[in-house]
Amino acid sequence: MPSSISMPAPPDRVTVVTIARQAGVASSTVSRALNGDTRISAATRARIAAIALELGYKPDALARTLSGGRSGLVGLVLGPVENPFYVAMLQEVVAQAARRGIRLLVLHLGAGAVEDETMEAVLQYRVDGCLVTSAQLSSRIADMCGSHGVPVVMLNRTTRLRASSVSCDNLEGATEITQFLLHEGHRRFALVGTDTSSSTALEREQGFTRALASAGLEAVRFSGGTSSWMGGYVAGEGIAALPPAERPHAVFAVSDIMALGVIDALRQNGLRVPQDVSVVGFDDIAEAARPTYALTTMSQPLVPMVRRGLDMLLARMEDPALPDEVTLLRGTLAVRGSTQARVVA
Amino acid sequence: MPSSISMPAPPDRVTVVTIARQAGVASSTVSRALNGDTRISAATRARIAAIALELGYKPDALARTLSGGRSGLVGLVLGPVENPFYVAMLQEVVAQAARRGIRLLVLHLGAGAVEDETMEAVLQYRVDGCLVTSAQLSSRIADMCGSHGVPVVMLNRTTRLRASSVSCDNLEGATEITQFLLHEGHRRFALVGTDTSSSTALEREQGFTRALASAGLEAVRFSGGTSSWMGGYVAGEGIAALPPAERPHAVFAVSDIMALGVIDALRQNGLRVPQDVSVVGFDDIAEAARPTYALTTMSQPLVPMVRRGLDMLLARMEDPALPDEVTLLRGTLAVRGSTQARVVA
DNA sequence: TTGAAAGCGGTACCAG
DNA sequence: CTGGTACCGCTTTCAA
């Protein structure tokens, strides 16, 4: 039966055999030549390369993997994208992975639990390694990867699990930004945190609280639930509802997205930022730089974090015996318009 | 050499052969049994299933694919995530794909061009189909997929390419929201568009312009560059700079994210929304519902769109001969606080 | 320097 | 109903 007009026959796959026949050599020779094996004469190598190019040969990644090689696949477990920080992270991971010839297999995205079938994909597709950001139940992924010799690197998340990690020095960062607030003359503080206890949020709270304690101060704590705009907004309403005498000079939110919610809530309730209340966050998401927010925040070194994370992962894909490693990177303070020095009354 | 303490030997892979030996049958029988082939006696099937379960057998997706089956992989090409709409889409795609047992291979993300190596991944990993959202150069992906018999479905993007698509009825939606504005008494309009000509933006502009034309009206056009908050902000500043006599009653932005930028710019310049100017968008991203914006917009039926898109893709993965198909879904008007009826002067 | 052949883990065809 | 076997595309000994 002749093929229909609208469906040009998908061209037959060009394989090592196709090339071997064309070149009049064995398929094994083709394989070696294309992989730059120096035992093959430069002449034959060149000839085979030429034919491969001409025929548009694309090695089958699956077959290659099956016969014992790497899959080139890295599993990706991504946190709640309601927080733009995770979106930025995703973007950076995708960009850098592409540059390194790594393919990303989406294993999970969002706040929910990682499903079982998802976990199985790690084995079924012979994923070489996993990149995990946040996710409450990431420990399950780490466990199963660990027991199957699949290296795992956590981004923006410290852990005691068998896995390596790269994250911002949250404790130090929170300390630094708190000291900045103290230096600016603020003496009454509010802390905006979450109900869920992610390592990230906890460390930041600690840094803040300790820095205050060193100055003999305490903060009132507000929680809006999750690390989201709405979470911050709810907390912000609570702060705005305080009697003027108890109103904080400055608010520290454990994430930028919450800080933005806080700012909106304060303004919605007639308070000015920074004139009445200074607000700071942590992350430095793109929205923080908008003129309407101009959020003072601790900027996470996103690009280096991802680079370091991929380096660590690739190294462990090469040599699975490498010991776990924890890297902390320092953030940098980004001072913008959401804070202002407090004139002593 | 004994294995080290920290590295428990990765357990040997459980294959059909492992099970076959355990059960005292041929591997082909195992394969059939596990695939529910009714020719195998219910008894043997049960027995094999039990052994498989006990041994924790996970069929190797790669081997299965190599021997002629589907890979279960769908390539994902995602648009600029600066626009939260694409993030929401990603989230929905991931969720629904997981539910259907489809694995997503990230091919691209962002505004940039799709790289060559990325395109090759489609063939190298034997991707069963591709899901494409936006992306200027998505045509290249579509081309190469088309010529290799890999079905493509475009989401939120109409096209004349060989590919199917699902999108919101942008023309109709823009018309409807414009008529709403007219009905509310607005007579002077501004249009906020982009420099890049995505089909989506163009159709929305058309719907708006035509609806106005039907009423004998015209709009001043502003462009802030890209479909982003900043793009909207820049356009908004232009609008705010107009002399009061020329100030529009209502602004139609081709996307929510731009509309938010417009609102912020107007307010930053002392104009009130909706009292001085009404603003509408298109998409209904989560941010639009924030009390601080309360954006009136055309809500895209995201969940049904994705469902329909996956349906179409799966159908074509089963039967590649299916003809291309274009589906338009109607959006629904979400009236919120960023618009207000204009009292006739 | 190159060829032949044996897998990798499944599926499917052909027998029996 | 079930077993044997070839094959998917590539890598990798083992020979020559």
TrEMBL record, chains A, B:
Molecular function (GO) terms for this protein are: DNA-binding transcription factor activity; transcription cis-regulatory region binding
Q: Which InterPro entries did the record assign?
A: HTH_LacI (IPR000843), LacI/GalR-like_sensor (IPR046335), Lambda_DNA-bd_dom_sf (IPR010982), Peripla_BP_I (IPR028082)
Q: Does the keyword Transcription regulation apply?
A: yes
Q: Which residues form the HTH lacI-type domain?
A: 14-68
Could you tell me the keywords of this UniProt record?
A: DNA-binding, Transcription, Transcription regulation
Has the keyword DNA-binding been applied to this entry? Answer: yes
Cite the PANTHER family for this sequence: LACI-RELATED TRANSCRIPTIONAL REPRESSOR, LACTOSE OPERON REPRESSOR
List the protein's name.
LacI family DNA-binding transcriptional regulator
Q: Which organism is it from?
A: Teichococcus wenyumeiae
